[in-house]
Amino acid sequence: MKKAVIIPARMQATRLPGKPLALIGTKPLILRVYEQAMKARGLDQVVVATDSSEILDTVRDSGGQAVLTAGDHVSGSDRVAEAAQIIGAEFIINVQGDEPFINPEDITRLVALLEQKPDSIVTMDYKLTSIEQVRDENVVKVVKSDSGRALYFSRSPIPYAQNPEDVLGLARGHIGIYGYHRTVLEKLTAAPVAELEKLERLEQLRAMAQGIPIWVLEAQEAPIGIDTPEDLEAARKRLQELGDDAFPG
Predict the structure, then answer these.
(1) How far is Cα 217 from Cα 149, in angstroms, rounded to an integer?
(2) For 193-207, how does the pLDDT look when each residue is reduced to its tens digit (9 = 90+)?
(3) What is the pLDDT of residue 242?
(4) 84, 175, 184, 210: which sits with the fewest CB atoms below 10 Å from its CB?
(5) How far is it between the farthest Cα atoms of the chain?
(6) How far apart are the first and last CA of the chain?
């Protein structure tokens, strides 16, 4: 069965419009993400899914693959589902288009886990190292069973502890990378929005409401996503300091 990384990308990001084409060094953000995904093993294809002709042309002009999707998708998952149908992918890794430093080995590990659990969703987490992260509503938290199955996702500090310091070591941050078989993805995107999803503004809670298991692997590195102008400047600074070492793989 065809295995593909699909990277959803749109121009109208709320906090950083035009984000996919913002330069990090000499290359646009979307190409940095694409090149990292290309280093992963066990894949048949890497493709950008976008509603923007500018992004489409940028990727294709660089020698990459991209498909044009509808402009009215509510979520990145909907865009990925359409792209999966276009390219005929059965096993899909949804890599966010704002993770230029994603470790290709983590993508490879998710592909392997997805092959073992084709009826589930697979994703990743990392250890939170500060109380500020635990309390930050923009840092999505996850708690999971000893076997690695997700129990809940929240923007609130979870798990609870009377002494907040006791949470460190247990608190986990969620990384927005997902793997699923196309039938699972189609079930997810066809399902109604769940009540908990509305409250938390977290799409993965729709999967949990539908009874779809979510398995969580620990990432080898904490994410460095780009959501704000400050994040973008930090990424540029990291590239200046580390050069090509800023992009593992």
Answers:
(1) 9
(2) 999 999 999 999 999
(3) 82
(4) 210
(5) 55
(6) 25
